[in-house]
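Hey, can you fold this one?
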Amino acid sequence: MQKLIYRQKTDNELLELLMANKEIRGTQTGVSVAELIKMVDYYKQKTLELQTEIAGYKDKEADLAILSGKLQNAIHEEEKKNTKTTGKIILQLLSAVAGTFEFTISYLTPTAYWNPLYDIKVNKITEPVNLMYKAKLVQTSGIDWHKVKLTLSTAVPSKSNNAPLLKTWFLHYTNPVADMEDLLKLNSIPSASNSFLKGRMAGTQLNDVVVVGYGNNATDKTTEEKNKDTDPLYIVNNKPMTAEEFGKLDQRVIKSVTTMAKDNAIALYGRQAENGVMMVTLKDDLSDYVSVNDNQLNVTFDIDIPYDISSNGKENQIALKEYTVPSLFKFYTVPKLDNDVYLLGEISEWEKLNLIPGEASIIFENTYVGKTFINPGSTEDTINLTLGKDKRIVVKREKISDYSSVRFLGNNKEQIFTYETTVKNNKSEEALIILKDQYPITSTKEIESKLIESDDATINEDNGILTWKLKLAPGESKKVRIKYSIKYQKDKVVNLN
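Sure. Predicted structure:
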């Protein structure tokens, strides 16, 4: 931009010089016609050149000004995103001797947190579920983290550690209006906006994040050179390697090291294995770099990979562990509420997986089918994961009018309901289908409810739910029937639907 201004200034000065000396006359003799024509042509040509250059410079200056404005706006936006906080640390030190010392500074911040995230992959219902356990990490501490070692903990440091105590409960009359007015005065009405995590799922807690800087990655080596005649042969992932080559490996990538018996080593690798063979297996998956520690009050994930986490509030996804989980797959349907059939994966012994509540993406047969929510805070022995809908199993529930009736018995009215459900398997393999229906349960003696027909269903008399387990071959269909009666006062209205 500055060079352009200098050129424009020079051309303006030349133009002014031409304009100041455009008077054509001789001091002693007149100007000839040839000299006059030559002077006019020169003046015309030079003036046109200079004015054209000046116009071009002005256009370039305008373009550069627009570009400069855009760059300044972009810089301003980035500065707002990456706002740096500053401060100072005051230390009180006591040292017996004077000297130069190194200090490691650690700090606590409420602006760093992580939430769990899962990927559930199912290739076939005859194969186990592949569960990828991931973390979604965010930090806005004002300090960018470079090459840090992360430890993610399920502990919640912001929660009170005091055990609750019961106090005497006195009954008294309350005035809801007065109570609400008191809350308004105190400006302490609980609301979602007062939650520490804005815009997050109810019940989600901040999980602890511990950050440790990495030291020198180089392995310790002795100052004396090793005698090559006594070095063993290293077999790293089935590939021979010398001791010198093995020494260059980062020790964090080693998964396991075992020793092979000398006779077996020579038989397999010849004389180069006279000093023994070390079988080395390297880590080949991200989850190999994560160790899980099940502590008394929480679970921690130690991640042995250096990460760069910027303080810009953006989410960073980190792979923690990958599990292959044996599962029982079944199809589930409740045609009274929904005619769709859902594929469920039932996982047992889920306590060993150290799961915490979080959102899961479902990938079935290499196709993304949607999201579900994993809630391990259950007292059940198994967790059911909803993997999606299968349109190839058709369910239809309909009322059988011929077996339904209404009759009056004195002051009472009795209604009989009969429903038939048809299930057909249009898949090419056998399907296990869990079918559920229900009959109403009465909460008062004035209403009588009775189950008449259940078609060999498993009956839960506490909640009135009937369950059928149907095994259908390809192309096979089955019908089940439920029949119940309700008797109540004829001048009353009952919620029959």
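The mean pLDDT is 78. Let me know if you want another pass with a different chain boundary.
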